């Protein structure tokens, strides 16, 4: 089994795998929220931080991201404690972006304020839609009014926040989506992420889809919606800086940039995926395995006085585990690294700089992908100048097909 070795930390992703119910389209790993489950998980999370800190040379951290699951179900005090712990083990820059995903169904004004006090400086809100019928179809536990109320509270308390919207839903017309966009733009959020509905295996939607009970819009309508969004958001002054992401000036997502720039990052929690610069790893998507590994005594964080590292260390999970396995590690071959680097760079409006590719791999990008570049340029999917190559507007519409050429 290869071993992880982080030359740089850069970013930390923490997966908080608790939800109050399961949305039928979602394939992220999550379990039912219980206070006891969170208590045991928190003790384990502290230990994984110890473990990964020991594997990291340069401990500078520029971004922290709490994803899920539904991180907003977690008590702000616990968030405060884990941020303190991260700062204790790593060198977090004073301007670090610290993001938390929130679900409008599980936050109040008090919680929003307390997350800010805990150290969160950016929120990512899973609004998904302002249409009650669509929200109910997606299994969301909020309605349009509640979504707007939470959005307003967030805007009043956070300068930096992002909103997620899903489009290309069954029975959604172009006009429906235009209305969603309009209602969103009334708030003029600093950052917007747009995703079309994807059907993932092992979800209730997948079963329905296979039984012919769920019909997605045609590819043509899906493309029309995406184009509509590009136009509306451009008119409103947003920069379309990545396939699915739009921002006002100065509000690009710093955490995601670390992924797109092919830099290492740490990821903690069951189901979380990280990268040490050479190997990708994925923690097993099973909370019990995770607890067996990092908290075999099932200590409850709520029972530990404040933060008591010595007591936690008695869990003795930092030795080599011979029997238990916590993660799969895949070390990449050079060709795989070139491909990943290329498609991640091409996702952004900066594109791929030839000199950076050379600095990273000691090879000329244009020589490796000579035929692919010629083919994609002839199809008007890529454009280049002396220093870099980027997707064209057409290329953005069929980005996944372009990326496949490099993988
Ligand atoms: S979409 Fe979010 S809230 Fe819904 S099940 Fe997935 S992680 Fe939980």
From TrEMBL:
Pfam families: HemN_C (PF06969), Radical_SAM (PF04055). Its main location: cytoplasm. One of its GO terms (cellular component) is cytoplasm. Keywords: 4Fe-4S, Chaperone, Cytoplasm, Heme, Iron, Iron-sulfur, Metal-binding, S-adenosyl-L-methionine. The lineage of its organism: Bacteria, Bacillati, Bacillota, Clostridia, Halanaerobiales. This is Heme chaperone HemW. InterPro entries: Aldolase_TIM (IPR013785), Coproporphyrinogen-III_oxidase (IPR034505), Elp3/MiaA/NifB-like_rSAM (IPR006638), HemN_C (IPR010723), HemW-like (IPR004559), rSAM (IPR007197), rSAM_sf (IPR058240). Belongs to the anaerobic coproporphyrinogen-III oxidase family. HemW subfamily. GO terms for molecular function: 4 iron, 4 sulfur cluster binding; coproporphyrinogen oxidase activity; metal ion binding. The keyword 4Fe-4S applies. PROSITE patterns: RADICAL_SAM (PS51918). SUPFAM superfamilies: Radical SAM enzymes. It comes from the Bacteria. Residues 4-239 form the Radical SAM core domain. It is found in: Cytoplasm. GO terms for biological process: porphyrin-containing compound biosynthetic process. Coiled coil: none annotated. NCBIfam families: hemN_rel. Probably acts as a heme chaperone, transferring heme to an unknown acceptor. Binds one molecule of heme per monomer, possibly covalently. Binds 1 [4Fe-4S] cluster. The cluster is coordinated with 3 cysteines and an exchangeable S-adenosyl-L-methionine. It comes from Halanaerobium praevalens (strain ATCC 33744 / DSM 2228 / GSL).
